[in-house]
Amino acid sequence: MKHCCKEMTDNLQDEDEILYFFKEFNEYLIPVHDGGSSGIVIRYCPWCGQRLPESAREKTFPKGKGLSKRKSQKEVPRRGRSGPKF
Question: How many domains does the structure of the chain reveal?
Answer without folding.
Answer: 1
